[in-house]
Amino acid sequence: MAISCNAKRSCSLGRPPYTLLVSTVFLFLPAFIKMLFKTSAIVALAVAPYAFAQNTAVELKSIIAQFQNAKLTPDPITTFSPTALLGVTYGSSAIDAGKPQTVDAVKPQPKLTLTPVTDSSDVTASGTYTVAMIDADYVGASQAEGQTRHWLVNGVKATGTSAPWTLDTNAGTNITVYGGPFPAEGSGAHRYMLLVLAQPSTFSAPATPAANSPIEKFDFEAYVKSAGLGNIVAGSYITVEQGTSTVSAESTSSVNTATLSVASTAASGSATGSRAGSATGTSTAPASSSTNAASGRVVEWGMLGAAVLLGAVAL
């Protein structure tokens, strides 16, 4: 402890240097912490939208790559260049593209959501859409006789004030009421595409198939052309199989999301070229992107939550 004396020889006990230092630190610490929280909140809020955009862009590339690797493009779909993500929920379970499903799991009509990723006049909150579920059979099956129509709804509107928007399929015009996948025993893993197409104001439904037509074979691309429908703006697919396969399905490959950086051009928006993917299996392989996509969403919401918390503390 330090002792100090004045000119009159009057002495007193003074504060040790470290006591003064500690007092100073405690004096300014609350202000410093508050400033730190405010800075952290600003940074988190600034970075979160970028992280979200990056993640959804990679998810979009993943969907394009999955359609290519499942050999859904260029046949039966010549061009697949979605600009939005399609959310598909059966009951309370959100499904990942390409994942095998049971007949019972996909029996009810699914709920669909639409999340725009890139700027496109085809995807707006006030837009009108056509929704379809198409069975493209097992990988390698001939498409000469067309595909099986399991669901077709015209005049579908989006609801909600912000994305993801809910697609109100119940308010549309049913050409074919939803009928869940039910492939024949032993016919392999059928690929069921869920597609959302832009429906322009000039749209005119063809005479056939008429409203309330049953599940049946038809040429999907011929229908799109004759109806004057726009681009496929979003899509997903599932596989359903019953029994042991007796068909010779072509091999497919899964998607490596490590190669799907936003800057990468390996999986471009257009899927009109040759079929992509190396042969590594004997049936449609589930995508490997679901874990990465889910973790990305966790990071995004974690950052947003942290930003809100830090902002609240700072204020």
From TrEMBL:
Cross-referenced InterPro entries: PEBP (IPR008914), PEBP-like_sf (IPR036610), PEBP_euk (IPR035810)
TM region(s), chain numbering: 18-37
Region (Disordered): 268-292
Keywords attached to this entry: Membrane, Transmembrane, Transmembrane helix
Top-level taxon: Eukaryota
Keyword Membrane belongs to the record: yes
UniProt xrefs under Pfam families: PBP
Keyword Transmembrane helix: yes
Listed PANTHER family: PEBP-LIKE PROTEIN, PHOSPHATIDYLETHANOLAMINE-BINDING PROTEIN
Entry protein name: OV-16 antigen
Organism for this UniProt entry: Rhizoctonia solani
